[in-house]
Design a protein that fits this description.
The protein has about 250 residues and is an alpha/beta fold. The chain contains nine helices and 15 strands. Helix 1 runs parallel beside helix 9.
Length: about 250
């Protein structure tokens, strides 16, 4: 069996702002409006590849993930949320996983509060979201600028600052996608671990996988032994085509 840990946004699903062609399926609604889509090809592949255990691994909060889960006939037995902090099994939170997360993050909670406070003073006009004690984020127009400024003002030995093209995140130390894969697979034997992601927040999980799929933007910083650069647009279709080819060739 292969375990396929995949980021969601801009890896498997796409905002309504992205052009992914006409053959697409709505996978998320927000306030009654179509919010995110998946291509028909990707949807069909994930629905039919029974040899692959697909595990979404996302920075989305549980509330944000539930919007996707409720809009699709894809049923994932496992989903890892909040950058690795929360595990859902058959749609229910794993209490054991959450307790372990709390143990890992405990020493960073004071620093999390301090970092969030600093961020709120720097940018009082924006809303800071803290869905979990070990996670805060802010949506902003210039995430690189916010990220750089925040790193200069807080103790990065206690918290982990990340950003993508829309948001800046603050996580307690130890709450990473790579650490989540290591936690999940410590009781697994002989499974091939596959990962896919599109930005710097995904690098830690791509580095611990046996096979990784990534875009050119982050390809050079991935240390995984078998890494595959996907140039296809949409990215998700290229990943699924490569997985299918590997299966047909007996690589997987």
């Amino acid at each position: 069996m292969c375990l396929f840990f995949t980021d969601l946004d801009n890896t498997m699903i796409y905002s309504h702002h992205k052009d992914i062609g006409e053959t697409k399926i709505v996978v998320e609604y927000l306030n009654g409006y179509e919010q995110s889509f998946m291509t028909e090809y990707t949807y069909g592949f994930l629905s039919s590849a029974k040899w692959l255990t697909v595990i979404p691994l996302t920075s989305r909060s549980e509330q944000q993930y539930r919007r996707v889960e409720s809009c699709t006939n894809l049923h994932f037995k496992y989903a890892i949320l909040c950058n690795g902090g929360k595990l859902l099994i058959d749609g229910k939170e794993s209490v054991e996983w959450s307790r372990e997360t709390d143990d890992i993050a405990q020493g960073s909670y004071d620093s999390m509060e301090n970092a969030t406070s600093i961020l709120s003073k720097l940018y009082p006009a924006v809303t800071i979201h803290s869905p979990e004690k070990y996670m805060s984020y802010v949506k902003c127009d210039h995430p690189e600028e916010v990220y750089t400024k925040l790193r200069k003002l807080i103790d990065c030995n206690k918290v982990n600052i990340q950003r993508d093209n829309r948001k800046v995140y603050i996580f307690a130390n130890g709450i990473t996608k790579g650490a989540a894969i290591e936690r999940f697979t410590k009781s697994c034997k002989n499974e091939t671990v596959i990962a896919a992601g599109d930005n710097l927040m995904d690098v830690s999980m791509l580095n611990v996988a046996d096979i990784s799929f990534a875009k050119q933007d982050i390809f050079d910083v991935i240390s995984c032994k078998t890494k595959v650069k996907i140039d296809d647009i949409p990215f998700s279709d290229g990943i699924c085509k490569s997985l299918n080819e590997m299966k047909l060739k007996g690589v997987l």
